[in-house]
Amino acid sequence: MHKIVSFIPIKLNNQRLPGKNLMILEGRPLCDYIFNTICQVNAISEKYVYCSDEKIKDYLPKGLSFLRRDPYLDGFQVKGLDIIEHFVRDVDADIYILTHVTQPFTKAESIEQALNKVLYEGYDSAFSCTCIQDYCWYQNKPLNYDRKDIVTTQNLEPVYMETGAFFIFKKEVFTKYHQRIGMNPYKYVISPLEAVDIDTAEDFELAKVVAEYYKRLGKD
Known about the structure:
Layout: E1 4-9, E2 24-25, E3 28-29, H1 30-39, E4 46-51, E5 65-68, H2 80-90, E6 95-99, H3 108-120, E7 125-132, E8 137-138, E9 141-142, E10 159-170, H4 171-177, E11 185-189, H5 201-217
Parallel strand pairs: 1-4, 1-6, 4-5, 7-11
Antiparallel strand pairs: 2-3, 6-10, 7-10, 8-9
């Protein structure tokens, strides 16, 4: 039986959009979205919110545990891999699931389906991404097409862009390679709406539109 542990790193001193993780989105604190999504994933053995500020306890639904992290990890220069390293050191598991508050529309079924790829199909990790099947450039040259032979977009080689919705990885992926994506990852494609990521005030305005759209569909 695999021990599957999820963690949601969160800080309350955001730089680009101060206080964003507690901002109200369609009547709910932003953090409430991913908190409730993780609570729906029954395969997870232990579910943590990894935060230095105990104030976050006031926002935790039943099923999520608070784990206090070193305030050092709230620093603006701290890298995501540093946060993962501290969590892996604090909590042992066979498989870790990392999600982020800033992607509120992440779906529980997406996490579950990607997790099953790691559990049962031989992948050492899985990550959410969007698929871009359009004319892309990188380092001042076309990335996925020939300028002398332009094919239709449906025949282009797709380009995949990571999102922060979730990263799922076996323990050895991190302890051996110091990575959240292993050598045999599964790319789980999510929709642009599910991939909405909030870093700026403009992002938050977009998220409000998406939240209203989902509300109209009855999917809030």
